Amino acid sequence: MNKFEQQTIALAGVYQAAALVDSLARSGQADSDAMEKSLYSVFQTDADTTAEIFSGLDGVHYGLQNLQQQLTSPAREQIGTTRYSISVLLLSGKLLKNPEKLNLISQGIKAAAAKLDLYDYTHSNQIATLADIYSSTISDLSPRIMVKGDPLHLQNPETRNRVRALLLAGIRAAILWRQLGGSRIQLLFKRKLLVKTAKQLLEQSS
Known about the structure:
Blueprint: H1 3-27, H2 32-42, H3 61-72, H4 79-95, H5 99-113, H6 124-137, H7 151-154, H8 157-179, H9 184-189, H10 191-204
């Protein structure tokens, strides 16, 4: 798998998390398989390939679909996905310049990973832990991500925790994308290649 394909997978991880956040905010529900793989990705710190971070290409199928649609003909109701993706990408750049916060995030994830024998990564306790990591390290950075949706769902503590945990997953994917050489210039001038690559990767997944 070439470098651009790996960058596309990481970027799809960003769009997957953003789309899941938007879905949770608006309806209180989200694709369970995609959410599981996004949460799984947070704990993967020594994977051999980018795809393995999401447990294979299938784990980022939802993100590849959203990336492809966002870069070709985004639907009006998906404006939230666009907004959250851009914000996550911007925040990842700021975090890479803040080693203290990166270290706190890393320590928090390691502490959560140490409890995987007790609680699976989809357990409410783990999700709450990831949400706390996001709240204590990222939520005060600018531009602050303001999640909009149905107040009934956003007032639900479990939904709020899922949203924050997924935003952390999005940040993790965005940092990976940057580490692989991804940049905003790609989003501006290589959109057609990104769409083409996402399509090819979708064909390889199930």
